[in-house]
Every structure is written in structure tokens, then in C-alpha cells.
């Protein structure tokens, strides 16, 4: 596991010390660059530029440090920034960060949670929320929470933080609650959602599968395609049109929307069914037919998405 910069140098021979100093300088330079990249993203919302800048650092071994810095900065800022950080973590995990990077980054955050709490009083609660959101966004799997927990004593703040994250991630209707865990979407995320709605409305009018698939691909956020599925299914119920099933089949066939994202999208619709039936009396019946259709065509993981 990567560690932060030590406070004291161990006794080293001249050659080892020279190598150590070079690595220390490299780490300091990286931290400064990472901070600049993060702050620029939080100001500009330009995710594509951030990803390019991170790749251009050519230091994948420091990816966990980037994650630690991103989450630490966000914990001490407003909800809008926390939402942007969670969303960015999803993008980075799809584009350039490995699961090991994310695990190590969160382990570093957990290792230092007691120190962080000296400056951010509710740091443990906020970190638990980031962990739960990471599970909800498929950045981490549930088993990763257990693996993280194995290295901490049961009475430690880190272990309590993980337990809180587990409760948040697996509570009833966790998907919708965690989507709004930072008090609502950032302006950036709202823009993406508006693009998705416009794309789906155009598809409902034209039925142009090719154009709709290209539009979804061009949005360039495969980790957020569960929103396409959710919005599409709800729109289909409202308009009493099953045309969305053809689009989902095309997206599945072309690899535009993954089984994981399809399953997540169906799950999110199921989670808000109590609200949907108030406006669409037959919503549950329609949704159940969609689930059976999805299972028949292998779009979704059957164990993860059930009828209502």
C-alpha cells in the first residue's frame, strides 16, 4: 500500500538516500500537480480535461494518492463539490483507475480518519457516505468493504466508518437515497440528465435507433448509463410506449450499455415504484413485464433485479 510522505528519514547509505530524495521530490511534485488538477476541475467541471491531465502525469503508482486528495478536499467543502467528487471517482474508475487504486486510496483515507477528524468533525460520516456511494456507483463491490474492514480493529474509527458505509449501501431504497446523498445533483450532472431526457424524447418521436445509440455513446459516460435506462423506462410508462425496449436491445447488442448498467437502471426504477404508482397506476404491472423481457434477453442480472 502506498503511504504518505514520512516525517523522518530512516538511516540510509548515500546511494539509497539519493534515490529516496528523488522519490520524495517526485511525490511532492505529484501532490502539487494533483491539487491543481482537482481545483481546476472543481471550478471548470471539465472532466475530460482532468482525465487527460491525470494521464499526462505518467504516475499511475500515485493514483491512490489522487483519490485520497480528491475525497479529503471534497469532505471539507459543500455538497455540490462532494457530488462532483463522487461523480469524478466513477469516471476515473472507468477510464484510468483500477479497483486496487480505489481500494488503496480509501484505505489511506481510513488510515488517517482520526487525524482528519481533528479538522473535519464529521469526517467519519462523510467518508462512510463516499464509500457507500462508491458501492452504489459500482466503483467498489460490496465484498471490497469487507476486505477493507479486515485490516482494522473492531473498535477503531475506521471499522465504525466501514460499518456505517455498509448500512448506507444496503438499506432499503439505497440507490435513490445515495444518488441524492449530497443534497442533490451538481449543475454538471443536471446538464447530463437534461441531455439524456432530450435524447430519449427525440427517440420516442423518431424511432431512430442508430441516432439514439450514437447519442448515448457521445455523452461519453458509460458509468452513468443507468440513468439512461431509468429515465427511458419511466418515460415509456408515462407515454404508454414500449419503444424503449428496442433501444435497450440495440444498446445491449452494440455494447453501448453494459449488463451492470442495465441492471442498475432497472433497480433504480424499482426503488421509486411507490412514487411512480401515484402518477401511473399500472406502473408496477408494466415494470414487471419489462423485467421479464429483460431477463429473457439477458440484459440484467436476475439475482439483482426482481419484480415488484
UniProtKB/TrEMBL annotation:
UniProt xrefs under InterPro entries:
ARM-type_fold (IPR016024), Initiation_fac_eIF4g_MI (IPR003891), PDCD4 (IPR039778)
Superkingdom, natural source? Eukaryota
Residues of the signal sequence? none
The answer to whether the entry has keyword Metal-binding is: no
Q: Does the keyword Repeat apply?
A: yes
Q: Which Pfam families match?
A: MA3
Keywords linked to the UniProt accession: Cytoplasm, Nucleus, Repeat, Translation regulation
Q: Where in the cell is it found?
A: Cytoplasm
A biological-process GO annotation? negative regulation of DNA-templated transcription
Q: Tell me the ranges covered by the MI domain, including all copies.
A: 29-150, 191-308
The protein's matches in SUPFAM superfamilies, at most eight in alphabetical order, are given as:
ARM repeat (SSF48371)
GO cellular component terms, semicolon-separated: cytoplasm
The record ties this protein, via PANTHER family, to:
PROGRAMMED CELL DEATH 4, PROGRAMMED CELL DEATH PROTEIN 4
Family (UniProt): Belongs to the PDCD4 family.
Q: What is this protein called?
A: Programmed cell death protein 4
Amino acid at each position: 500500500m502506498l503511504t504518505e510522505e514520512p516525517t523522518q528519514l530512516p538511516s540510509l547509505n548515500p546511494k539509497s538516500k539519493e534515490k529516496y530524495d528523488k522519490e520524495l521530490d517526485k511525490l511532492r511534485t505529484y501532490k502539487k500537480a494533483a491539487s491543481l488538477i482537482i481545483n481546476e476541475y472543481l471550478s471548470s467541471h471539465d472532466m475530460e480535461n482532468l482525465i487527460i491531465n491525470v494521464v499526462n502525469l505518467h504516475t499511475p503508482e500515485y493514483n491512490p494518492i489522487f483519490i485520497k486528495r480528491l475525497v479529503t478536499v471534497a469532505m471539507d467543502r459543500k455538497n455540490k463539490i462532494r457530488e462532483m467528487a463522487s461523480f469524478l471517482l466513477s469516471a476515473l474508475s472507468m477510464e484510468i483507475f483500477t479497483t486496487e487504486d480505489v481500494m488503496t486510496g480509501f484505505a489511506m483515507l481510513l488510515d488517517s480518519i482520526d487525524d482528519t477528524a481533528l479538522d473535519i468533525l464529521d469526517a467519519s460520516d462523510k467518508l462512510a457516505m463516499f464509500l457507500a456511494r462508491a458501492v452504489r456507483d459500482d466503483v467498489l463491490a460490496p465484498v471490497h468493504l469487507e476486505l477493507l474492514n479486515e485490516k482494522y480493529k473492531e473498535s477503531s474509527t475506521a471499522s465504525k466508518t466501514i460499518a456505517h458505509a455498509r448500512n448506507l449501501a444496503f438499506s432499503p431504497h439505497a440507490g435513490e437515497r445515495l444518488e441524492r446523498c449530497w443534497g442533490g445533483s451538481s449543475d454538471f450532472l443536471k446538464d447530463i440528465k437534461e441531455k439524456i431526457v432530450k435524447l430519449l424524447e427525440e427517440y420516442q418521436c423518431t424511432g431512430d435507433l442508430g441516432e439514439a445509440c450514437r447519442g448515448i455513446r457521445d455523452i461519453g459516460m458509460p458509468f452513468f448509463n443507468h440513468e439512461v435506462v431509468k429515465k427511458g423506462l419511466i418515460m415509456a410508462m408515462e407515454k404508454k410506449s414500449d419503444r424503449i425496449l428496442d433501444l435497450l436491445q440495440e444498446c445491449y447488442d452494440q455494447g453501448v450499455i453494459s449488463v451492470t448498467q442495465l441492471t442498475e437502471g432497472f433497480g433504480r426504477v424499482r426503488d421509486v415504484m411507490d412514487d411512480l404508482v401515484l402518477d401511473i397506476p399500472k406502473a408496477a404491472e408494466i415494470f414487471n413485464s419489462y423485467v421479464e423481457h429483460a431477463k429473457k434477453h439477458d440484459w440484467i442480472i436476475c439475482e439483482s433485479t426482481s419484480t415488484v
